[in-house]
Amino acid sequence: MSRVRFLFPVLIFLSCTSQVPRSLGRLREVTVITDHWNDVDETVEAMLSRPVRTPQPEPEFQLRVGGFERFTALSRLRLILVIATSGDTLVRRIIGTRIDSLPEGDFGLFKIPNAWVENQWVLVFVAREREQLVPGLELYSRRILRTLTELTLQQMNRATYLRGINKDLTRKLGERFGWAIDVPLNWLLQDKDSVDHFIYIFSHFPDRSVFIYWQDTILELNPDTLLALRDRLTGSFYNGDSVDRGATLVDTVEFLGVPTLRVRGVWQNRKEVIGGPFVFYAFNYQNRFFMLDGVVYNPGEKKLSNLLQVEGIIRTFVPGWTSGRF
User: Fold this and answer.
1) What is the pTM of this model?
2) Domain containing 154: what range?
3) Which of 98, 114, 216, 313 is deepest in the core (most CB within 10 A)?
4) What CATH number has the domain bearing residue 135?
5) How big is the CA angle at 234 (ends 229 and 237), to the nearest 5 degrees?
């Protein structure tokens, strides 16, 4: 099975200092460093800038592009994708001799933490020849997108929990239900419907919430069935919310080591004439079914970063509770 090759930090092009500077740049921004943009532009944009309904379409990632001559300036940014051939001097200085034995023959994908600044991730895609760049990127597109999404969620969580975790509420969930989710500071808990195996945490400015629903049985991970289940839950507990079935994006990811249905889309409330984006994870774990769902309501503003924030909170979920955690 092909994998992303993980490299230890490669601190090059920087003089030795006692303190590594912090990364710059916006969350959800990918800086593409390449001298082959005219060859790969359409492929990269199709991979990373696909529209996500929120309800107004927003690109999955915002792209900043520069050639190798701009490396010194761009190398301080937060999330970098280097696209190169094995003959490019820059990538040889980054990867070293590993480039002479690419892990998958004609292609290689390398992931480097804190390569040139703190809180930075660098992804390096290498093709042996220039003519192989586009077919290689197409072959690796799902892996690159998945990796950049995971790295962005990590960075988003770092920002979300910068002020800390509400340990009291997190502990309360763990001790009461046997599972837990990290509740950010300044978020609140609504558990009045816990008898129906439904609770949610929420915050304002903008409005965001994450609900957890569970059953002591296994359910088939069928998208239509689970969207109908979500409509029943939000119809009962979220004052009539429902899913716009024409604006959903469904994929399968691995979460907690098990196959998980991940659905993003648009929720709407016809009575209140409001709506916004949502994301849910649905999975079975040790003979229990869980649905973890995050929603955003922020009219007139961009929403995708907030959606990534609630998805990051979802990904802190643990199905078992350890009393000595805090």
Assistant:
1) 0.86
2) 5-160
3) 313
4) 3.30.379
5) 125
